[in-house]
Amino acid sequence: MFQNQDVADYYNTTQNHYEKWWNLKRNLSLHYGIWDENTRTFAEALANTNKIMMEQAKISAKDHVLDAGCGVGGAAFYVHQYSKAQVTGISLSTKQVDLATQLAQSKKIANQVVFEIMDYTKTSFEAGSFDVIWACESVCHANNKTDFIKESYRLLKKGGRLVLCDFFKTEGDQKDGNNWMRKWKDTWAIDDFASIQYFKESLINGGYGAIESVDFTSNVSKSARRMFVSGWLGALPSELYNLFHPKVSTFAKNHYKCGIYQYKALQEGLWTYQMVSAVKE
């Protein structure tokens, strides 16, 4: 079972890969981009993910938003820029939080967009602290997804909204003869993906109402293919680097393989990409 430190190590040791493959320094995004008929570039697809989530959560200037698994702060900056909402981002990665904090200071918004190292399943925030909880491709890392659901419910005010985008198993008990999903999980420090059915049932059992899910699997297929191509392009350089740097971390050593595994799994229909929203009633 992966622990918090494993997740932190994954992001700390692979950030330079995202800088190359995902143009992280410019896009400030580690997530998949959602494409539609008006999307022309990958950068626009990445921004589109933020736009769609923000619209679903109906975020406005009066809201305090918790970005649970904030990466390097891209979504938090986007939300603040387009809504003027106050945003608090949390991550297990010191490298991510340090960079996000530096960026907030350089943008002169450090009093409105703040970042902390914290576990989103057991935070130090008081109950009812937030109007919106936002999680983009981060809940997959929770060993027990219900722990996140319980904590998010505690942190939201009455009427508060939860919005997330993430990867879900197509079926709770599905056959995967090539173990594409297991191989993918191992490269990302993920114990298991939930099925969308299980996750929605857990939201209901956790007290949430107005639960909705939108399937964006076809809209992220170009992003998944981009990662697949990046994986193959990175294979030889990675193996050569590993040969001369045998002490490189396991995650950094095998990271290029995730692009191959996730796309093979997608081709076999083993996962879906869903936006899920719910309300604390």
Helix and strand topology:
Layout: H1 4-21, H2 24-27, H3 42-57, E1 64-68, H4 74-83, E2 86-91, H5 94-106, E3 113-117, E4 130-136, H6 145-155, E5 156-169, H7 180-188, H8 196-205, E6 208-215, H9 221-244, H10 250-267, E7 271-280
Parallel strand pairs: 1-2, 1-4, 2-3, 4-5
Antiparallel strand pairs: 5-7, 6-7
Helix pairs in contact: 7-10, 9-10
Description:
The protein has about 280 residues and is an alpha/beta fold. It has one domain (about 5-280): Rossmann fold (3-Layer(aba) Sandwich), CATH 3.40.50. The protein has 10 helices and 7 strands. Helix 6 (about 145-155) links the parallel strand 4 (about 130-135) and strand 5 (about 155-170).
The rounded distance between the terminal residues' Cα atoms is 34 Å
CATH superfamily: Vaccinia Virus protein VP39
Q: How is the largest sheet built, in terms of strand order?
A: 3-2-1-4-5-7-6
Named at the architecture level, the CATH assignment is 3-Layer(aba) Sandwich
> Share of helix among residues?
40-55%
Helical segment count: 10
- Unreliable runs, pLDDT <50, ≥5 residues? none
Write down how many β-strands occur, each being a DSSP E stretch of 2 or more residues: 7
Q: For the record, what CATH class applies?
A: Alpha Beta
Radius of gyration: 18 Å
How many separate structural domains? Answer: 1
* Percent range for β-strand residues: 15-25%
What does this entry show, briefly?
With 281 residues, the chain is of the alpha/beta class. Helices cover 47% and strands 20% of the residues.
